[in-house]
Each structure stands twice: as structure tokens, then as C-alpha cells.
Specification:
Pseudouridine synthase; alpha+beta; two-stranded antiparallel sheet; 5 helices; 11 strands
Length: 234
């Protein structure tokens, strides 16, 4: 279920598949990523619900995650992420043609007061700084518009950050059920059959607790790669 890309005594780097939550929630009792990895973690001093989890991916987002195996490693990675010393890149497919081929989205994010499970760009006092840097990789014309494949480097790690930022600039993530274009997604599904948001965390770069520089990359999973193959064939 979980592909372990790297493992030592202190931490693991894993590839999370789409459709599985990172850790349990109050509203779901389905198997989670941490259920599959818990036996490898020294639970002493860690949160028993989400032990070793130093960053997250949405349930329907796939890609690379670091999981700490002990308290010292957990504390190290939490500080590393807080200091923004982890480089994180995603492949993202969005609706439309972006005006700028490379740009920075610097827009604070807060929880939507009307929908507690959603986030939005906000100028409120409680909003948290959020910065995403995107670069256009390819544009694909389809029968009902255009979709664009992006490389997105997130400088911060806010909840739903890429999805919220892309919606804010009117280029929502393709097949995003929460922030996406419902009519566009319905048409896209009818033609391409994609069942989840096109969002994949493909690269992490950081310095580990031993001082070693690490970089991990992963290819698009089969369902997303199939979409790119179909788009290229048009």
C-alpha cells in the first residue's frame, strides 16, 4: 500500500497513494498511512494519533512524505519545516491558460468561516502567510478549453494551499471537488475518466538529522500519467 523510498533509524521517506488519509480523523475510521507505518515508529513522546507526521498531503493527493521514527527526529523535522528549509515541488494540472509562465502567489490563507472544512485567501488578522511559486510546463488544448500542467514550489505548507491559491487566480486544479470548476470537471471526467484532483508531490529536498543533503523524486502515478499521455495524444 505504501512505497518506502528511503528508511534509516530516524526517519522514512514514503510515497503516499491517492485515496488514503495520512492519519485518522474524527469523521473517518478508514485505514490510514500511519496505520501502515506505526510499527516502525518509536511512539515514546509522540502524538499517538499521528505519530511521526511532520507534514501532510490531502487524502486525494499523492506523493512524497517524510515520517519521523522517533521524538528527536520529529522535533528536528518540525523545526526544519518551520524554518522553510524543505523544498517541496508538485505537479499540478489546472484549468485555463495562465497569463504569466512563471509567477509567485503571495496570498494569506485562513479557514472559511462559513465552511469549516474549507480554506480561502483572506486579508483577516488571523490569516497565515502562504507563498506558492509556479512555472508552466505544458499547455494542452482540449475540446472544451485548455488545461495547463504546472510545477508548483510551495514555500509554506498551509492547508489546501495549492488548491486555494489556484482557485484564487481563477485557474482551479482539475478535478478538485472542493475548490474546482464543477461543470469543467464533469466534462473532463466524461472524456478522460480522472476520478481525483490532479495534484502530486513529486520532489522533496532537505538536510537530514545527520547533516546529509537529500533529494527524493517520484514519477507521476499511473492514473495521472495516463491523463498526460492522453493529453499529449490530442
Amino acid at each position: 500500500m505504501v512505497n518506502i523510498l528511503f528508511e534509516n533509524k530516524d526517519y522514512m521517506v514514503v510515497e503516499k497513494p491517492s485515496g488514503i488519509s495520512v492519519h485518522p480523523s474524527d469523521t473517518s475510521h478508514e485505514p490510514t498511512l500511519i496505520d501502515a507505518l506505526k510499527s516502525k515508529i518509536d511512539l515514546n513522546g509522540l502524538n499517538p494519533i499521528r505519530p511521526g507526521i511532520v507534514h501532510r498531503l490531502d487524502k486525494n493527493t499523492s506523493g512524497i512524505l517524510i515520517v519521523a521514527k522517533n521524538k528527536a527526529s520529529y522535533d528536528y523535522f518540525v523545526k526544519l519545516f518551520k524554518a522553510r528549509k524543505v523544498e517541496k515541488h508538485y505537479y499540478v494540472l489546472v484549468r485555463g491558460v495562465l497569463k504569466h509562465k512563471k509567477a509567485v502567489i503571495d496570498s494569506p490563507i485562513s479557514r472559511d468561516l462559513n465552511h469549516r472544512t474549507r480554506m480561502n485567501v483572506s486579508a483577516s488578522i488571523g490569516a497565515k502567510n502562504a507563498v506558492s511559486v509556479y512555472e508552466v510546463l505544458h499547455e494542452y488544448k482540449i475540446s472544451f478549453g485548455t488545461v495547463t500542467l504546472l510545477d508548483v514550489d510551495i514555500k509554506t505548507g498551509r492547508t489546501h494551499q495549492i488548491r486555494v491559491h489556484m482557485k484564487a487566480i481563477d485557474h482551479p486544479v482539475v478535478m478538485d471537488e472542493t475548490y474546482g470548476d464543477k461543470r469543467f470537471n464533469e466534462s473532463f471526467f466524461e472524456i478522460f475518466g480522472l476520478k481525483r484532483q490532479f495534484l502530486h508531490a513529486y520532489m522533496l529536498k532537505f538536510k537530514d538529522p545527520d547533516g546529509n543533503s537529500k533529494i527524493f523524486r517520484t514519477d507521476l502515478p499511473e492514473d495521472l500519467n495516463d491523463i498526460v499521455v492522453k493529453l499529449k495524444a490530442l
